[in-house]
Amino acid sequence: VEQTLALIKPDCIHNSEEIEDIILRSGFAIIKKRRVHLTPEQASDFYAEHYGKLFFPSLVAYMSSGPIIAMALSRDRAISYWRELIGPTNTYKARNTHPDSLRAIYGTDDQRNALHGSDSFSSSQREIRFFFPDSIVE
Ligand code: ATP
């Protein structure tokens, strides 16, 4: 089995129980879970790879605008399977091309896209440690 880091972002927090049900019904185990309100500094650190991009300041403002839920999810092929389930980054694109995806259903716009999923094994390791510093990620 593999682990990935999932985030329920501020625009989707009111749907978190529904999302957690979907996660469990999709064969994931929720290994760790934490509700957290990131400071702008923490949000900048999490999204450091996007530093310097035009959308970076508003991404940081969005991600620190309210509480989020961080979860370490486990199942086989967790990283790619969770990203398939959430769908394309852009909510409008998700609605056009992947209407059953979670971002199509729960996303707000091109930035506020409800959910996050690690995009590789190395990001899953970094991101799980970011939210759960004492965890051992295999
Ligand atoms: P991936 O790039 O691997 O698809 P992702 O879906 O999380 O991962 P990123 O490109 O890493 O998307 O961007 C991180 C977050 O920044 C997005 O989830 C979205 O909230 C926001 N974002 C990305 N691109 C834009 C954009 N062009 N305009 C506004 N916000 C954006």
Automatic annotation (TrEMBL):
**MF terms in GO:** hydrolase activity; nucleoside diphosphate kinase activity
* Active-site residue numbers: 116 (pros-phosphohistidine intermediate)
Positions contributing to ATP binding: 9, 55, 83, 89, 103, 113
Q: Does the keyword Transport apply?
A: no
Q: Which GO terms describe its biological process?
A: cilium movement; CTP biosynthetic process; GTP biosynthetic process; negative regulation of oxidative stress-induced intrinsic apoptotic signaling pathway; spermatid differentiation; UTP biosynthetic process
Keywords attached to this entry = Cell projection, Developmental protein, Hydrolase
Q: Where in the cell is it found?
A: Cell projection, Cilium
Q: What is its main location?
A: other
CC per GO annotation: cilium
Domain Nucleoside diphosphate kinase-like, chain residue ranges per copy: 1-138
Q: Which family does it belong to?
A: Belongs to the NDK family.
What name does UniProt use for this protein?
Nucleoside diphosphate kinase homolog 5
Organism per entry: Lottia gigantea (Giant owl limpet)
Q: Which residues of the full protein are shown?
A: 18 to 155 of 217
